Amino acid sequence: MSPSAPSGAAAPSCEALWTERNAIFKAGGYCFRTPQAIRAFGNAGCQYDDEAEVPLSARQREQVARIRTSERSLGCTP
Fold first, then answer.
1. d(CA 46, CA 6)
2. Which of 8, 27, 33, 47 is the most exposed place for a label (fewest CB within 10 A)?
3. 30 by DSSP, 3-state: which?
4. 20: Cβ contacts below 8 Å, ≥ 6 apart
5. pTM of the entire structure?
6. How far is 61 from 64, CA to CA, in rounded Å?
7. Helix (H) or strand (E) run with residue 17 in it
8. pLDDT level of residue 10 (50, 70, 90 thresholds)
């Protein structure tokens, strides 16, 4: 579910938001550091250790920012 779901729709969970955000970084070649992310996504083919260096489009960066805002508003742990 997208964090920009219409009102009345169920709010996404912290886990769903975390997965959506990290899937964007995985597709961009990010090398995960946490055991949870490595278990979920792996690091095969990763190229970037710094999130800021991952070559994401402006739309993807905006999506990540929206997801992080949703995570903060839900009180999700980083």
1. 34
2. 8
3. strand
4. 2, 3, 12, 67
5. 0.83
6. 5
7. helix 14-28
8. confident
Q: Would you say how long the chain is, in residues? A: 78
Does 3 or 11 have the greater pLDDT score? 11
Query: How far is 47 from 33, CA to CA, in rounded Å?
Result: 13
The DSSP output letter for 46 is -
Q: Can you tell me which residue has the tokens 């070559």? A: 55
54: amino acid identity, one letter: V
Q: How far apart are the first and last CA of the chain?
A: 19
- Provide the pLDDT for residue 12: 87
Find out whether 2 and 19 touch, Cβ atoms under 8 Å. Answer: no
3-state SS, residue 2: coil
Closest C-alpha among 1, 8, 4 to residue 59: 4
Q: What is the pLDDT of residue 11?
A: 75
Q: What is the CA radius of gyration of the chain?
A: 13
